[in-house]
């Protein structure tokens, strides 16, 4: 193994016509890595105020077949979820990630919602998770893995409900990375999710629900200053 | 896979006469270019992003050893492992070794062109490990014992009736008379068949669109979510990546991601973009217990410092395939190996040798659309010309063609002789073809006239008209 490693690295150096880089050459490269310099960010979202970014997020998410329910406080979330499930004719039974971000929602106010907290399994039809951030530019949710947010809950259930706060909406992916770095270490998985699962593999015709969720519903809590 | 690139001409002939393929390619030729154009129209910064993307890739290539070592260091820091492999064979053996260490029976796979390059499925199968492709298109070609014909749309060469036929032949426990007419129904059936496979797999293998040096992460984009179920559920996640996939930071990957989906399918962003870093953490209650990156060279370092170095910028979006009149006419299988279209015509000779793949750089009309849509502005037509030159130097082109070109070059370098020869030839052809205005066949030119008519020259040559105008 290490023989291959050495040969590949020396092959690269031969091809580039130089030897191994010395400290004088690697120092600016290390600096570039540490700096997290942003490249060009499109004006589409970055030029808007926060209310505009939230509106853009909703429009972009709906364009790719996600549905969005906007509520004014955490108190209204259980009702919004129950309404959505009944409108879709789905059972009011869901698996919820044990995420503290979902704790302040008064789930007991809707006793008919049957909620199991934990990791999603093969038979779970509806899953509810919390978002870490959302990217206005393309209507993209940013979800991260952790002890309280297993990644499989984003993929196994047929219907994925995501609770998002307006204050979590940012303009660009780069803003999401900044928030993630501020929050601490890199999680095992970061999922950027833009609409429900889909495929165009059959004659280029769009079919939703290829392997991941068939439906993506976003409950957006308006907690931000506008 | 065993290349059949040497048979390009025969393959292409067959493809042109295949009605299913022609129907499928017709759908491809309209869909992708229209969607790409619409997506780019909506992003005024697209061209500026291209320039930044190119700068990032060029910077990485110039410092490739540094970024690979940094990537490796960070993968190890996160509890993962990097396996450096010079050849496809080494990479196959590495993957098998990991599977054996986990006593793996089945392996789920997300779509990976590097995996195709390694012919990994055949290798695993021959060694008692069952690979299951999970991308819908890739699953369809797997059950048909075919290879993908397009780097992002593996089953683009098929019509749905062929897919239905294969489902009926493979999913024999389902009622034979069921209706499989609608794409929705085919997709649901594949979903139902593959879900238990995801849950039962011992190892999950994905490719990588990018590797992030800063964090030691791998990035994949999918629309189906198959790549995620593939990597989250099993005991180990193996990432197959060629070494030019590394980029410095998450910010750099973000810039390239803005180019990728728009160039590929015309989407604003792929449905799922997933950044994976190491194995599951001690406190996590899901995720793979092991994380391996198989880093494959397979001829890529040999491109550094040479005339094909820019090819290492390629992000595998397939825009060049989607806009190529030759690819659009004959499909991907005619190219005879993993990579097809203009990027395949340049990359294949680099990886398997010009002796095997000499026809591919000739499968071009030089219309230039590939370069104009390439997000990395790779000069594909120029590179195809360079391959043709190498072929000529190595005396691989057919004798008649070499003599013809030699004769032409001799005449063309002597203006008086050229004018005389072209004037005489033009006049004779003009007379002979005069009545119909075109030729249906010509001696020594059947390669041209088999498929089309040659218009007969009319009137005077450009040179003589030019001379007359200057006199006047």
Describe this entry's structure for a reader:
The complex is a heterodimer of chains A (226) and B (472). By secondary structure, chain A is an alpha/beta fold. Chain A is built from six helices and twelve strands. Chain A is elongated and about 70 Å long. The N and C termini of chain A lie far apart (57 Å). Chain B is an alpha/beta fold and 472 residues long. Chain B has three domains: 119 residues, no CATH class; 259 residues, 3-Layer(aba) Sandwich (Rossmann fold); 61 residues, no CATH class. Chain B is built from 22 helices and twelve strands. In chain B, strands 1-10-7-4-2-3 form a six-stranded parallel beta sheet, sandwiched between helices. In chain B, strands 8-5-6-9 form a four-stranded mixed beta sheet. In chain B, strand 5 and strand 6 form a beta hairpin. Chain B is globular. The N and C termini of chain B lie far apart (64 Å). Strand 9 of chain A pairs antiparallel with strand 9 of chain B, so a sheet runs across the interface.
User: Stretches of chain B where pLDDT falls below 50 for ≥5 residues?
Assistant: none
How are the strands of the largest sheet of chain B arranged? 1-10-7-4-2-3
CATH architecture of the largest domain in chain B: 3-Layer(aba) Sandwich
Computed structural class of chain B:
alpha/beta
Query: How is the biggest beta sheet of chain B arranged?
Result: 6 strands, parallel
Q: Percent helix among the residues of chain A? A: 25-40%
Distance between the termini of chain A: 57 Å
What's the CATH architecture name of the largest domain in chain A? Answer: 3-Layer(aba) Sandwich
Question: Helical segment tally of chain A?
Answer: 6
Assembly context of the chains = heterodimer
- Per CATH, the class of the largest domain in chain B reads Alpha Beta
Question: Could you name the key traits of this structure?
Answer:
heterodimer, A: alpha/beta, 4-stranded mixed sheet, 6 helices, elongated, B: 472 residues, alpha/beta, Rossmann fold, 22 helices, 11% strand
């Amino acid at each position: 193994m290490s023989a291959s490693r050495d040969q590949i690295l020396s092959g690269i150096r031969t091809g580039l016509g130089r030897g191994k880089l010395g400290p004088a050459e690697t120092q600016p490269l290390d600096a570039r890595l540490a700096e997290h310099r942003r490249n060009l960010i499109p004006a589409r979202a970055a030029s808007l105020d926060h209310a505009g970014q939230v509106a853009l997020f909703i429009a972009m998410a709906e364009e790719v077949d996600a549905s969005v329910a906007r509520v004014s406080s955490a108190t209204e979330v259980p009702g919004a979820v129950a309404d959505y499930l009944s409108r879709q004719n789905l059972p009011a039974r869901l698996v919820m990630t044990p995420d503290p971000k979902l704790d302040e929602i008064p789930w007991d106010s809707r006793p008919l919602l049957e909620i199991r907290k934990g990791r999603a399994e093969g038979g779970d039809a509806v899953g509810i998770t919390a978002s870490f951030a959302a990217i206005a530019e393309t209507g993209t949710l940013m979800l991260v893995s952790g002890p309280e947010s297993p990644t499989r809950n984003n993929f196994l259930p047929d219907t994925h409900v995501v609770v998002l706060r307006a204050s979590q909406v940012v303009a660009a992916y780069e803003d999401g990375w900044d928030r993630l770095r501020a929050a601490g270490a890199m999680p095992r998985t970061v999922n950027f999710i833009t609409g429900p699962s889909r495929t165009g593999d059959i004659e280029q015709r769009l079919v939703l629900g290829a392997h991941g969720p068939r439906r993506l519903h976003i409950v957006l809590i308006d907690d931000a200053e506008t | 896979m065993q290349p059949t690139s040497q048979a390009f001409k025969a393959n292409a002939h067959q493809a042109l006469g295949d009605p299913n393929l022609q129907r499928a390619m017709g759908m491809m030729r309209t869909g992708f270019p229209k969607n790409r154009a619409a997506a780019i129209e909506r992003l005024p910064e697209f061209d500026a992003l291209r320039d930044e993307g190119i700068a990032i890739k060029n910077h990485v290539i110039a410092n490739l050893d540094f970024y690979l070592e940094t990537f490796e260091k960070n993968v190890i820091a996160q509890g993962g492992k990097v396996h450096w492999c010079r050849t496809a064979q080494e990479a196959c053996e590495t993957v098998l070794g990991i599977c054996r260490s986990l006593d793996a029976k089945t392996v789920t796979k997300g779509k990976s062109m590097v995996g195709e390059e390694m012919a990994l499925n055949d290798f695993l199968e021959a060694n008692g490990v069952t690979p299951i492709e999970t991308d819908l298109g890739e699953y369809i070609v797997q059950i048909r014992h075919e290879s993908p014909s397009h780097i992002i749309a593996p089953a683009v060469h098929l019509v749905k009736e062929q897919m239905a036929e294969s489902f009926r032949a493979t999913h024999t426990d389902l009622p034979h008379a069921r209706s499989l007419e609608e794409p929705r129904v085919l997709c649901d059936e594949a979903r139902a068949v593959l879900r238990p496979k995801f849950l039962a797999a011992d190892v999950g293998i994905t490719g990588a669109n990018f590797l992030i040096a800063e964090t030691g992460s791998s990035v994949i984009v999918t629309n189906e979510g198959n790549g995620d179920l593939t990597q989250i559920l099993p005991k180990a996640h193996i990432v197959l990546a060629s070494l030019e996939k590394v980029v410095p930071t998450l910010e750099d990957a973000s810039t390239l991601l803005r180019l990728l989906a728009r160039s590929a399918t015309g989407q604003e962003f792929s449905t799922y973009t997933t950044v994976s870093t190491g194995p599951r953490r001690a406190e996590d209650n899901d995720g793979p217990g092991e994380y391996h990156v198989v880093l494959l060279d397979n001829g890529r370092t040999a491109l550094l410092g040479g005339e094909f170095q820019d090819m290492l910028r390629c992000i595998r979006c397939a825009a060049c395939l989607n806009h190529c009149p030759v690819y659009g006419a004959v499909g991907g299988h005619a190219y005879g190996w993993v990579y097809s279209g203009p990027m395949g015509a340049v990359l294949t000779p680099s990886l398997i040798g010009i002796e095997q793949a000499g026809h591919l750089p000739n499968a071009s009309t030089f219309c230039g659309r590939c370069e104009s849509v390439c997000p990395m502005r790779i000069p594909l037509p120029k590179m195809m010309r360079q391959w043709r030159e190498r072929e000529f130097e190595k005396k691989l082109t057919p004798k008649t063609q070499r003599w013809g070109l030699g004769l032409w070059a001799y005449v063309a370098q002597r203006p008086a002789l050229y004018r005389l020869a072209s004037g005489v030839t033009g006049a004779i052809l003009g007379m002979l073809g005069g009545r119909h205005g075109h030729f249906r066949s010509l001696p020594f030119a059947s390669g041209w006239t088999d498929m089309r008519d040659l218009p007969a020259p009319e009137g005077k040559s450009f040179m003589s008209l030019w001379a007359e105008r200057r006199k006047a």
